[in-house]
Amino acid sequence: MDIATQAPVSPLYQRWQQLRTEQAGLRARDSAARLGVSEAELTASRLGVDALRLRTDWAELLPALGELGYIMALTRNEHCVHERKGYYREVSVSANGAMGLVVSADIDLRLFMSQWASVFAVAETTERGVQRSIQIFDRQGTAVHKVFLTEKSEEAAWAPLVERFRAAEQSAELDLQPRAERQVPRADAEVDAVALRADWTELKDTHHFFALLKRHAVARTQALRLAGREWAEPLATAELPRLLEEVGSRQVPIMVFVGNPHCIQIHSGTVSNLRWMGDWFNVLDPEFNLHLKTSGVVELWRVRKPSSDGIITSYEAFDAEGELVVQLFGARKPGVPELVEWRELAESFAALEA
């Protein structure tokens, strides 16, 4: 795509380039934080240099990503990054445009699109050549989801796709909105814990858990505290990397869920190449990378939920604000009981004392 224009380079872009010369290797997300702007604003400052703004026609754009062939999909939150290589296939968007799914064998996404706000095509020159990506941001300017071309991508499809979805107005204006104030959870004493436990025991599908939380007006970690140890047990946060190491050593297939309020990305399969880098615990496999900032995990729970297929066991990690960082399950499909190997391993770690 022909991105370069004669438009004047923005002051923000100039400040960013100065920061990059002072701190080489600083990622865009961290650069934006240092400069006191959102990542979307930083990306918009690249217009006319190496970025184009695209139309937010999600129902058309998302299926079109399949034309790019073998890509890397990236979804993250503050403390965990999930990168999965594969093909964008079997994409669906609801009639009202608020929900979407990608359910190919490798790229597996749950999309909540009511707050998706802007999207850019970026073609950044790096030491290893041009890195091409599609980057989606929410109404606060936070990255929701990114798609990167790989050495195996259909590079010839890039320029036609970008031209097809190029926004008529290449404006850096984003109309950002403040994030909604976090709801303060009710005091535990105000929750009918007996009714909560009764409804928990009646669950038939893990996907119904969010509705249970909403029905009882409880935060997720609050529900885990009140459910009783039959259903949820706290563990030392150090057990999370230990569990992943055991999963890798025994080659137990798992499902790794990482997301933010607008996108959840899932890996199903084994993990093998596990490595510490400072306080980051990493999975560095050919098709799946996970980067977990362990210092950001302040609570870890072993959670059991009943379903029509039997008990489903998960490990759920939370940050200081009670937000989910990562969830681990045994690999399974609906209608299939939980893997015995996963359950035995998940149950082998000692819970914290009450």
Describe the 3D structure.
With 354 residues, the protein is an alpha+beta fold. The protein folds into 2 domains: 11-89 and 116-165, 3-Layer(aba) Sandwich (Heme iron utilization protein-like fold), CATH 3.40.1570; 188-277 and 293-346, 3-Layer(aba) Sandwich (Heme iron utilization protein-like fold). 24% of the residues lie in helices and 33% in strands. The chain has 10 helices and 18 strands. It has a 9-stranded antiparallel sheet. A 9-stranded antiparallel sheet has the order 4-5-6-12-11-18-17-16-10, with helices on both faces. The chain starts with 10 loop residues before the first helix and ends in an 8-residue tail after the last helix. The model has no long low-confidence stretch (mean pLDDT 95).
Provide the number of structural domains. Answer: 2
- Uncertain regions spanning at least 5 consecutive residues: none
How is the main sheet built? 9 strands, antiparallel
* Class computed from helices, strands and strand pairing: alpha+beta
β-strand amount? 25-35%
Summarize this structure as a short list of keywords or feature phrases:
Heme iron utilization protein-like fold; 18 strands; alpha+beta; 2 domains; 24% helix; 33% strand; 354 residues; 9-stranded antiparallel β-sheet
